[in-house]
Amino acid sequence: MWERIRTGAATGHARSRAWIELDMSALAHNVHRLRALLPEGCELMAVVKANAYGHGDLPVARALNRMGVNRFAVATLSEAVALRRGGVEGEILILGYTDPADAALLERHRLTQTAVDFPHALALNGAGRRLRVQIALDTGMHRLGFDCAHISEVEGVYACRNLTVTGVFSHLCASDSLESEDVAFTQLQIQRFERAVKQLRADGFDPGRCHIQASYGAINCPELRFDCARVGIALYGVGSDDRPTRTEAQLRPVLALRARVTSVRRLATGETAGYGRAFEAQRPTTLAAVAIGYADGVPRALSGRGEVLIRGRRAPIVGRICMDQMLVDVTDVAGVRAGDVVTLIGRDGGEAIRCEEFAERCGTITNEILSRLGARLERVDAGAACHSDRTGTDAAV
Ligand SMILES: *Cc1c(COP(=O)(O)O)cnc(C)c1O
């Protein structure tokens, strides 16, 4: 998809209604920064679930392969199979539950499945396929994992003749916070994890690769020495939100979200616009219709509180966001016309809307915004896209 659009950018992209622009040099920069942050011997495992947080899993994973990243994590079997079919090499760990009835697919595509608890491990073993598994340990999140206090069940997995244990991992649930209670809980989770791993070793079992950090574990606890860190959101160059962190990772956002103005009209004072007549003009107003809506992943909750960039200026989203379109008040931006490029996330001239700002206005975190960006959006290479502040108008003709 990526390659095709890239070559057709001059026409295909110029005609797009709404698109995602990917800056692969930012991705490379982030890989470099994260590797520098992690201690010697701690590998970067790229989390590319949910279509690589909306960025496009195949182009992202292939680019990462070229950068020497050979460990990937996804949430589901179908995500993992799609990566393998797309030629992605290295370890692909499925973090979520997979039905043991699908064991043949796991085996055929050389995937690594998480054993989410003991019954799951037994059922996977019972499927009669030779499978690679990693054992999830519940150290306090209480979502998935073997209870880390009952090490005998964990050791029971080693008795499963069809299963090869290649790793043991856990997940931190409050590592994004620097509040003292949360920091203490993170320390407790780490202690529990280390104790369980130590016990396994003492009992003669090889835990394989041990890991507990995701993005915030890596950024807020960079001194930890595990075999890898499962990094998702940070790889894409944004924080989940704007809370402070212990280290400045100096990451660059990979994604920009843009759409096109399709029509411009004038309203007299007192006229209303959009569904439910939610917007009322308080002055003679110029409205631009923009070809992106909630079906593309722009939350309807942003209605009346969002802003976009157009011709390098901020302009408010007004009225109710529709399924495929939205309205922007461009009264204060001179010369807006059909074909202009509108930036919802990203930079335009001297202005920028960061993904963190966009998410906060929606009352959520960037992870949700990015992972829900719609399949209808085209994905283009930022290098091929001609978006710098004025060029959008070139496409208007
Ligand atoms: C999603 C996920 C990650 C990645 O989390 P980020 O905060 O995006 O880095 C890591 N581990 C597990 C188990 C996950 O579900």
Write a structural description.
With 397 residues, the chain is of the alpha/beta class. It contains 13 helices and 20 strands. It is elongated. The two termini are 27 Å apart. Bound molecules: pyridoxal-5'-phosphate. Pyridoxal-5'-phosphate binds next to helix 11 and strand 10.
List its traits.
disordered C terminus; nine-stranded parallel beta sheet; 13 helices; binds pyridoxal-5'-phosphate; alpha/beta; 397 residues
What is the secondary structure topology, with strand pairs?
Layout: H1 2-7, H2 9-15, E1 18-22, H3 24-37, E2 43-47, H4 49-53, H5 57-66, E3 71-74, H6 77-85, E4 91-94, H7 103-108, E5 112-115, H8 118-126, E6 131-138, E7 146-147, H9 151-157, E8 163-169, H10 180-202, E9 209-211, H11 215-220, E10 228-231, E11 255-267, E12 272-273, E13 279-280, E14 285-290, E15 307-310, E16 313-318, E17 326-329, E18 341-348, E19 351-353, H12 355-361, H13 366-371, E20 378-381
Parallel strand pairs: 1-20, 2-3, 2-10, 3-4, 4-5, 5-6, 6-7, 6-8, 8-9
Antiparallel strand pairs: 1-11, 11-14, 11-18, 12-13, 14-17, 15-16, 15-18, 16-17, 18-19
Residues 47, 49, 95, 171, 214-216, 230-234, 367 line the site of pyridoxal-5'-phosphate.
